Amino acid sequence: MSATLIDGKAFAAMIRGKVADHVARLKKEQELTPGLAVILVGEDPASQVYVRSKGKQTTEVGMNSFEHKLAANTSEAELLALIQQLNANPEVHGILVQLPLPDHLDEDLVINSIDPAKDVDGFHISNVGLLGTGQKSMVPCTPLGCLMMLRDHHGSLSGMNAVVIGRSNIVGKPMAQLLLGESCTVTVAHSRTKDLADVVRRADIVVAAVGRPEMVPGDWIKPGATVIDVGINRIEAPEKGEGKTRLVGDCHYTSCAEVAGAITPVPGGVGPMTIACLLANTLTAACRANGLPEPDGLTV
Ligand code: GUN
């Protein structure tokens, strides 16, 4: 079998189009421009790339983008003061603090100081609790993007066996909650899981989010299963020339694609969906803050 390719790049472009249309209507009919504030502390190169891309895509859909770049030695008090200011600013509907933070800053304290209604990452403990109890919340962007693609491909996910590999707060845990909410039978596997291959072989849906290049081989995949590869790992690619690199996922693409029914590629799968869902969450937050109806099909 050769798997159907789930095209996250095209899906994300469609979401951005829907967001842009809705933003245009809000501006015209409500004189409301949704705004996203992104805070970057320090000079981590990968984070700088993400933040630039977030800012660019935010303005492309017609929203206001507020970028706050702080020095690596910024104190916790300074960072918390900035977050309080953004919490109080009615032009800011979404606040994102780029992770990881430098070691001297308490990540939990910082995230939990964001107004939960503006927490477009869905990382605040209130949003985590709301999601876990099936209540309306802000849903973390990467798992939200994965769920949108799964729903689009399958329709109902009810009764399916889903295995999430990875138990991070950013992807693994919220992904498991979302799949439970879809009435899947969910297993969360991680680095201490015994007989991981056998666990994965039982899955109709595999979501791999461990950050280990090509860890899942094709012979772990149940024939016809859907593989959602969240990993983005840069590895050496001597075949492309000296010092060259390439991006791979947590799944070994070619062998998994031979067995799976559907698969997301890396790059061009989950990656582009994350920022598209961030824009969707910012729009949702702006609508909620102003008592307006939420956009259709952009949240769960
Ligand atoms: N760092 C890596 N992924 C994310 C994310 O989804 N949100 C934030 N804030 N930081 C990240």
Write a structural description:
The protein contains 10 helices and 11 strands. The chain is of the alpha/beta class and 300 residues long. It has 2 domains: 30-117, Leucine Dehydrogenase, chain A, domain 1 (Rossmann fold), CATH 3.40.50.10860; 141-272, Rossmann fold (3-Layer(aba) Sandwich). It has a 6-stranded parallel beta sheet, sandwiched between helices. Helix 7 (172-181) links the parallel strand 5 and strand 6. It is globular, with a radius of gyration of 19 Å. The two termini are 32 Å apart. The model has no long low-confidence stretch (mean pLDDT 97). Guanine binds next to strand 4 and helix 6. Guanine binds at residues 96-99, 121, 141-142, 170.
- Reading the helices and strands in chain order gives EHEHEHEHHHEHEHEEEEHEH
The domain tally reads 2
Number of helices: 10
- First CA to last CA: what distance? 32 Å
Query: According to CATH, what is the class of the largest domain?
Result: Alpha Beta
CATH architecture of the largest domain: 3-Layer(aba) Sandwich
| Gyration radius over CA | 19 Å
Mean pLDDT: 97
Fourth-tier CATH superfamily name of the largest domain: NAD(P)-binding Rossmann-like Domain
Q: What's the helical proportion of residues? A: 40-55%
Shape: globular
> Largest sheet, order of strands side by side?
1-11-8-7-5-6
Beta strands, count: 11
Q: How would a crystallographer describe the biggest sheet?
A: 6 strands, parallel
Structure classification: alpha/beta
Ligand types:
guanine
